[in-house]
Design goal:
Elements (H helix, E strand, L loop, with lengths): L1 H8 L22 H21 L2 H10 L7 H17 L1 H11 L2 H20 L3 H47 L5
Amino acid sequence: MTETQTEETAPAPATSKEDASSGPVLPPEEGVQGWLCVLGSFLALFATFGFLNAIGVFQTTYQDTTLSSYTSSDISWIFAVQLCLLWALGPLYGRLVDTYGPSPVIYPCSFLCVFSLCMTSLADKYYQIFLAQGLVFGLGAGGVFTAAMVCVSQCLGGVVFPIFVSRVIEDVGFNGA
């Protein structure tokens, strides 16, 4: 009976490293699942944000080939809408990721990105390129980008940020942090 009482009243083991100076209590690490999330987020951001950083290449190509009769200002509207949708829909996609998780957002948005690239490859008129690359890719990339960013912060941000903040507060004080 003494052993049972001792086991029931024994304190739970600490889930993180604590030193004698009562450092911050850290959440447990996610392990392999967390690092797979980081890898998936890297690949998602590589595909979407990397594609968006190639705007200059598309602008030049469209001016020289398919859309040579349009001004550079007209062509740049394709990319302006694309980037606007990427950033402006972030709060909506963020809410969806928080409510339903990243999978129901990232799968259809990834499909939109791939579909838009396929449709852009078939397009030969301004409005077709605008719809495919500007609107559809912007909608898809916004969801993929937001889900990838939120996924990493949920898996590993809870481990890294407390360590970072405590060290910064020690070095520069609360107001400087």
